[in-house]
Amino acid sequence: MRSITTFDLQYAHRFYGFQGEAQYLHGHTGVLTIEVEDSVNEGVNMVYPCNEIQKVAWDVLKNFDHALVLREDDPLLPAILDVYEETGLKDGHPQNKMKGEAFCTELAKAYPDARLVITKETMTVEGMIKIVYDLLKDKLNIAKLTFTSGVNAACAEFETRNVIDRCPLCGVTMNNDGVCPKCGYRK
After folding, report:
1. What residues pair up with 12 in beta bridges, in sequence order?
2. Can you tell me the distance from the alpha carbon of 61 to that of 53, in angstroms, rounded to the nearest whole number?
């Protein structure tokens, strides 16, 4: 069975080297749907609490919200970084409260203070699915990801292999020491 939740992400990007209108810097509202699969946890009668899926995923996904996403070889990147430096945005602004956990993977690197994500590949809907799966595959039993952005959409299904020890009282992932981080239940 699956628990399913969605996220709305506002971001700007461009397809560097693309021969069409997407080569220009533009923005989108993207909708990411995450489907988590497992057995129904008898204690809470659900696979995984959707609000907890949102908390786990949002820690990294908020790096994409109201962010600029550019490919690492995009010639706009140095110019953007120069402007961010000149205007004091590169190292963050006091009003930038929605910073995610910084990450650096083979596919992308997040600079939360600058609200910038630099990617290895062009950030298409397919590229976003690859990045999200890479970031969350060890935290959630992701069975399917769907990402829509404008008229573009893609989805991918995954084999779930994780054995996640879940709290029998609230359904969240137990800490390594056998204590629930939400309700304090101990094994």
Report:
1. 27, 68
2. 12
